[in-house]
Design goal:
Distance between the termini: 20 Å
Structural class: mainly alpha
Mean pLDDT: 86
Order of helices and strands: HEHHEHHHHHEEH
Radius of gyration: 19 Å
Largest sheet: 2 strands, antiparallel
Low-confidence stretches: 2-9, 14-35, 37-42
Shape: globular
Strand content: 5-15%
Number of domains: 2
Strand order of the largest sheet: 1-2
Helix content: 40-55%
Number of helices: 9
Number of strands: 4
Length: 273
């Protein structure tokens, strides 16, 4: 995990991206422009509206985006999620976190928060069923949400999934910053020793096993990586610099990598980056 103050070597983390640019992950520049520009122009000209759900967004972010797109009071969509008849696995207990599938959804005068959430959940059901052969496998969606949050690049997703699998098989705590960030409702690369001591079911430094729910809404690449991770004995990873994630089975090597990450963070801080 990426740390600036936490000194013990742990599993891994990545910068958290936001907004429309997440749509370009895994796409060429030309393809991304072809998708994004018409959407932006449509909205600017008062044409058909849409709601973009980027990969990895939390349910709270999706709710806020839907409220804004539909012009309803804040938290209207969040409240609708608690009463809507959504096609969720029983394990979800009515919480759609993890099943608000990342995509661009059309919005018109007949769209309601409940209908749009249902559209997202039905899309997730179809997509995940296509990937896994089963409808909404909750455990796999939970893992995929962590993979989505932790992997620095799409190419890293499979290795991150393998790290999670290896640590779970050994009964090791996952020690993922992304789950801790979810617990604290934040996004940061800087996890302190005090942060890792909080009592919370999403604190995977203290709790073993998976968190009780997904921590965001994963896309197809994260799900595919979760279902088909490459073989490997990795137990740790850290994104030392953008595009440079180091995976290892060695505790000592992870310590060296974390030290390099911390040095890079200090250098960024001094340079104002």
């Amino acid at each position: 995990m990426n740390k600036s103050e936490q000194k013990s070597p742990t599993a891994g983390s990545r910068p958290t991206h936001r907004g429309r640019l997440l749509l370009i992950v895994g796409m060429s520049v030309a393809a991304a422009v072809a998708v994004l520009v018409p959407l932006l122009l449509q909205e600017e000209k008062g044409g058909p509206k849409s709601v973009l759900v980027p990969e990895g967004w939390r349910a709270s972010q999706v709710y806020a985006a839907v409220d804004k797109a539909l012009g309803v009071p804040p938290r209207t969509t969040e409240k609708a999620a608690g009463t809507a008849d959504l096609k969720l696995p029983a394990e979800a207990k009515g919480n759609p976190e993890g099943f608000l599938f990342p995509a661009t959804y059309p919005v018109d005068g007949k769209t309601t928060p409940a209908s749009l959430l249902s559209y997202m959940v039905n899309t997730a059901d179809k997509q995940f069923k296509a990937e896994s052969g089963e409808s909404g496998p909750y455990r796999k969606v939970t893992i995929a949400s962590i993979v989505q949050a932790e992997a620095d690049t799409p190419e890293d997703m499979g290795k991150v999934a393998r790290v999670i699998s290896n640590r779970l098989a050994r009964g090791m705590p996952l020690q993922m910053d992304s789950t801790l960030n979810y617990a604290l409702n934040r996004s940061t690369l800087d996890t302190t020793h005090a942060d890792t001591k909080i009592k919370n079911p999403y604190n995977t430094y203290k709790e073993t096993g998976l968190p009780p729910t997904p921590i965001g809404n994963p896309g197809r690449q994260a799900m595919e990586a979760t279902l088909n991770p490459p073989p490997g004995k990795w137990l740790y990873f850290v994104t030392v610099a953008p595009g440079d994630t180091r995976f290892t089975a060695s505790y000592a090597e992870q310590q060296k990598n974390v030290k390099e990450f911390n040095a890079n963070r200090r250098s960024e801080s001094k340079s104002g980056g």
